[in-house]
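Subject: Protein entry, chain in single-letter code together with its fold tokens

Area: Proteins and the way their chains fold up in space.

Attached in line: The record itself begins immediately under this heading.
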Amino acid sequence: MSLQGLSTSSPYCSSTPWWKYDVFLSFRGEDTRKSFADHLYDALKRKGVLTFRDDEKLERGKSISQELLKAIEESRFAIVIFSRNYASSTWCLNELEKIVRSMKETRLTILPVFYDVDASDVRNQTGPFQNAFDDLEDQFKENLEKVEIWRAVLREVANISGWPLQNRHEAEFIQHIVEEILHKLSSGFSSIPTDLVRIDSSVEELLNSFLGFMNNVYMIGISGMGGLGKTTLARVVYNKFCSHFEASSFIANVREESEKCGLFPLQKQLLAQILEERNIDIWNVFEGVGMIKKRIHHKKVLIFLDDVNQLNQLEMLAGEHGWFGLGSWIIITTRDQHLLVQHGVHKIYKLNGLNHDDALKLFCLKAFKNEQPQEGYMQLSQDVVYYAKGLPLALETLGSFLVGKTLGEWQSALEKFLKIPKREIFDILKVSYDGLEIMWQDIYFWILRVTLEVREKIK
């Protein structure tokens, strides 16, 4: 199984304004509308893939509507389902002609499906396609140039690597297509920032040491102090591999959400995402545990529980390996490594701070939008990196705050930073980017206030 690609989430959400649709479905209604094409459309829709298929009434017209032409232009991918009677429809052939033109003009990617036909018959117009073109040549005696255009587009698309049904079960075949579509979609777009330092090596280390695609249930923990990037690593892994599982769920901010509303809503979220059902009929956490055991134990799932801080959170959301199907990944992020040990999570990936070179690179990306400091800022940048002690949150916060400031303002800020009593850098800089919306002259008092607030929480 390929490990390439980066996904946004599950269900997939298109993140670019350029394409209105993720997938355009082209098919011969007479052959597959109420069978294969309908099942494929439904499977894509359930995974959150925005898919366009023409209305049955449209195909009865003599020419393709402007709405359909626009939908082709605004789609990222076109799945063309070649069936035995595909070429018997001038509608389908005109549609395919537009799809090929859009491939060259708007970066549309064509993905052919050979449903009960051989790619060679499509390519060479033999077999059932020969009979269709014999009829077309009779029908278009006065316009054989049009017939040759259709032959050319068929050859071009049939030469693209696609999916042959052959002797596979349709349900398995559709699942494979959906997985590939999710993989291709997620490879192009991601809500994860592109300036992540060290993330690739962390993902590789996590996979090589703790995870695999065997028939085991992998329950692992990612531990470390706040601000190290545990959640970011979790999201990258989730986005990268969610398409390899039957279903997936990312439960963010377990600590915060459970404190506000309890565990019951989190159980409902997990079940809704895994089962793809909106109305989950449970009334308390004990019913939730029962339903998770009963409804999910046969599914290969990817589940992330982010920022766990209590044992009962794990007991109610991911009690045992046997709750989940073979091949599942259950990944937990927490600051409390002992919590993982208590729950019997024996595979623990301990996330550490960045080394000096990576820390400098991350800081410069935030402060200068470049991997190296601007001229005259090297020593001050080195001082900030030393001050941050390899903590990504601190580096990002300071870098974002100092961007565009003069040398004098940098020096003033660092002098004020260094007057703060030494303690864990996280306790000082546990703020969000929104917290940077403050006046420069208030920086010293702001940092002291944050420090005092954090100290009170620790008590």
In short: The two ends are 49 Å apart (CA to CA). The chain has three domains: 21-185, 192-350, 356-458. The mean pLDDT is 79. The chain is about 50% helix and 10% strand.
